[in-house]
Amino acid sequence: MKRFIKWLTFGALGLLVMAATLPLFIKPTPLPNLVDSITLATSTSNFVQILNKDGGSTELHYQAFGNATGNKPTFVLIHGSTLNASSWSGITEDLSALGRVIAYDQVPYGLSSKTLPEGVQEADYYSLPAAASRLDALMKALALDNVILVGNSFGAVIATELLARKPDYVSGAVFIAPAVTVSGNSPTWLMQLPQMDGLGVLLARQLGASESFYRSMFADESAISSDMLAGARLNTAVSNWDTALWQYLRNWRYNQNELMQTLATTDYPVLVVAGTQDAIVKVEQSAFVAEQIPNSTFIEIAQCGHLPQIECPEPLFDAINQWVSTNHYLMP
Fold it and tell me: Where does residue 66 fall: left (phi above 0), alpha (psi -120 to 50 degrees), or beta otherwise?
């Protein structure tokens, strides 16, 4: 019996050692048929180089619609995680009737840069402050003024981080299913383990190409077209997308209390929109965010999920149009 227990113990220890060491030898095979961002650019694509605080530059991809002549505002559209600028395709044309529209790809999504600049720390590059700084740099590079930030899901988190800096070129914000109260912290000790380097890339590939996660963002899956799916997967056709996504994921975290404190003390008017059938950010969570903002308006869109801008674009546009018209001071 003692010998059996001894061998059982040695066997268990051996399995633990294998579990700890085998992942170190996982080297994902490079994905075939990937191309650079320029190859995938369309007639509405624009690219701009943004200087990083810690050195080097980052190339951001954006699309521009309409104009901001006279008293018209500029709507800067900030997509959520795993998505890209194409997630705004259902509303860009209508919004362009109200002013200029800029829809950009956050790093590392869409056609924006997927290479960590030399000399820049990964944790700094993919931090929330860095994401807000890139957005700030984009708007300054384009000389934008009278800006209305429109953030969906994690895009609203980036918008909140920027609002904390009180930029004078921003007039207000629209939060669509804001993920401000959703936990944004991954277990740092686990994500930074050397064993996760290879496994993490495989995880990123699974998440980035997942159709089921995308479908969960809709109240009615029949609303999903083939063009929507192709747009959502655009990121997975660009060279190095899987490594960049893993680097982003293992450094993705934010302080919910700090974000809520920013919103509780902000002077900016904010429209908060929620789909009643949102399975990602519950309508109650969006309502709570709106309650914390001194000058907020809360709108629910019935039978709509996490992406009203492509599932329910008409009622979303009506809500934004009404809000802009009511807050006429947004249009000096």
Answer: left
CA 299 – CA 283 distance, rounded (Å):
10
CB-based burial of residue 9 (10 Å sphere; 0-12 exposed, 13-18 middle, 19+ buried)?
Answer: exposed
Closest CA to 273 of 102, 91, 129, 105: 91
Whether cis (ω within 30° of 0) applies to the bond prior to 30 is no
Exposed, middle or buried, 153 (CB in 10 Å: 0-12/13-18/19+)? buried
165 vs 131: CA distance, rounded Å = 13
Domain 39-330 fold is Rossmann fold (3.40.50)
The reply to whether the predicted model has a pTM over 0.85 is: yes
Mean per-residue pLDDT of the chain = 88
pLDDT tens digit sequence for 291-316: 999 999 999 999 999 999 999 999 99
Handedness of CA 22, 237, 190, 197 (dihedral sign): positive
Nearest partner of 51 among 136, 166, 149, judged by Cα: 136
Exposure string over 168-201, b if 16+ CB within 10 A, otherwise e: eebbbbbbbbbbbbbebeeeeeeeebebbbbbbb
